[in-house]
Design brief:
This protein is mainly alpha-helical and about 100 residues long. Helices cover about 80% and strands about 0% of the residues. Helix 2 packs across helix 3. The mean pLDDT is about 85.
């Protein structure tokens, strides 16, 4: 999915959402106007919303997490060897990490 957006837009989104930079801080770092940063972020958000609408990745991700939690509840409530339950829970944890 990284190739769906221009490199600059990906960098702006990373700084803005993941690193909590302000628009002004991003503008200063990249030596462009605050308005240009804002427009890049808005266009990138719109593109991502279109991709999400078409691909439904967030919905699939949430459904997968819901099913993993259902499995975890079934495992925790089952009667069986502690070692088997631990192995199954370890595998479920690995699935959570992949997301």
């Amino acid at each position: 999915m990284n190739n769906c957006l221009p490199r600059s837009s990906r960098r702006f989104l990373k700084h803005y959402f993941h690193e909590d930079f302000s628009l002004g801080e991003i503008a200063t770092e990249f030596e462009i106007s605050r308005q240009a940063v804002y427009e890049h972020i808005k266009r990138a958000e719109q593109a991502l919303e279109i991709y999400e609408e078409k691909l439904g990745l967030l919905k699939k991700h949430e459904e997968r997490l819901r099913r993993i939690e259902e499995l975890r509840s079934l495992v925790d409530g089952s009667v069986g060897k502690d070692q088997d339950r631990k192995l199954i829970n370890d595998k479920l944890n690995q699935l959570m990490i992949w997301d």
